[in-house]
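Subject: for your reference before the review

Hello V.,

The reviewers asked for a structural picture of the protein, and I figured it would be easier to keep everything in one thread rather than splitting it across files. Below is the amino acid sequence we used in the manuscript, unchanged from the supplementary table.
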Amino acid sequence: MSVSVPKSVFTFFKKLEKNNNRDWFNAHKPEFKAIEGEVKLFYNAVFENLKKQDDIDKLKIFRIYRDVRFSKNKLPYKTHFGGSFHRTKPRLRGGYYLHIQPNNESFIATGFWEPAKEDLLRIRKEFEMDDSEIREILTNKKFNSTWGDSFVGDEVKTAPKGFSKEHPAIDLIKKKQYIFTKKYTDKEVLDANFLTEVDNAFKAIRPFFDYMSDVLTTDLNGVSLID
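And here is what came back from the structure prediction:
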């Protein structure tokens, strides 16, 4: 039996966008819980597919409640579903994310959102020493037809401390995040083949993940840090 994202997800969130308050949500909570149950089936199907081709130890589906304590936006509820899929550490690095939101705002993402300080330095040092392998991955036709040929995410303005802004790989070195994203329309998300599309896109990221896992589990001399 194929699993798909129900149309009711987008219908509900569009109504919630106009009624983002506790009274309305509590009155419609049974509807939300039913939709949430269907969506969790989809996330679990993605999880099971990922486990067939990667070593994934955890799926985390984020709650609908927003943490408004330190935010200017005091709306209490998210108007999307988000879920992350964790590769088994320390041997494997990187992660997968699936975001389902109406108005053509859905996307998948992969990579390194908040690399630890030590990991970020190790990645930058690798690119400083030799950027040929990462360039080969980024320019691979099969890879960039899915994920594009460049990272998205935050970066420093010129160069991180200790690195030359004139270095040929400064475009890679100045990144603070190493992320790829792929957007989808509402129609694409609701398509019966969306599960397969997500699975194929996640498979396409593996050359990058294999390379980065190797980098982050060795020192600059190639000696393992986890044996």
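For the response letter, the relevant points are probably these. The first strand starts at residue 56 and ends at 61. The longest helix spans residues 29-53.

Happy to draft the paragraph if you're swamped.

O.
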